[in-house]
From TrEMBL:
Main location: membrane
Listed Pfam families: LRR_1, LRR_14, LRRNT_2
Record-linked PANTHER family: OS06G0587000 PROTEIN, POLYGALACTURONASE INHIBITOR 1
Domain Leucine-rich repeat-containing N-terminal plant-type: 5-43
Lineage: Eukaryota, Viridiplantae, Streptophyta, Embryophyta, Tracheophyta
Keywords: Cell membrane, Leucine-rich repeat, Membrane, Repeat, Signal, Transmembrane, Transmembrane helix
Domain Disease resistance R13L4/SHOC-2-like LRR intervals: 160-249
GO cellular component: plasma membrane
Organism: Eucalyptus globulus
Entry's localization field: Cell membrane
Official protein name in the record: Leucine-rich repeat-containing N-terminal plant-type domain-containing protein
Similarity section: Belongs to the polygalacturonase-inhibiting protein family.
Amino acid sequence: MTENKDEVEALLNWKSTFDNHSQSLLSSWHGDNPCRFTGVACNYYGAIIHLNLSYVGLRGTLDGLDYSCLTSVVSFELTNNSIYGSIPSSIGNISKLNSLDLCFNELSGEIPPSIGMLESLHYLYLDANNLSGHIPTSLGKSSNLVELRISQNNLSGSIPQQICNLRSLTILSLWGNRLSGSIPLEITRLTSLHTLYLSSNNLTGSIPHSIESLSNLSILYISQNAISGSIPQEICNLRSLTVLSLWGINCLDPFLQKS
């Protein structure tokens, strides 16, 4: 257990920053064996690989955790708690992280560009927080991302073209923000995409005709934006499409009358 000394210290220091009720919920967090801690799973060598405290009811911040000690962690999940404050840039130190789930909390501030340093990241879930600022262009470096969900926040600015470099993306969910500008033409490079949620933003411009390149797309939501122009006939070529939502936009010449 001596190899776990730094990990234990990091977790216990983090626990001490939570409110009293939260600390009582983590009553198993004591001693020198983190593999017995609630929400912690270890590998064969006793190193922490999973930290899952979702739906526990914790109230505190992410600042009190020394992420540089979590060198073997592949999943960090805190869904549906009362975690507030910002996402620290040091979270980019969890170099082996495969899944980061911070949905349904009270996080604020900007998404730190350091998340783009997580080259092993496949799943990034930041839905339903109070995050603001722009979507960092550095996310385009997380080339292994399969699912990117950052809906129901206060993000503004345009959809960065760099996200269109994430060729492994199957789900891109950006709905319920304050994003503006047009849908980038480069988004049609995401040929693995099967779900695209862009509803309830301030997007303008038109739906790109090249959308037919998204041959695996099965769910497309663009409703409640300031999109205008004509609905492109090319949508008819999306043979895998099962759900299409375009209500609340100002497009003309519905393609359905010609299909």
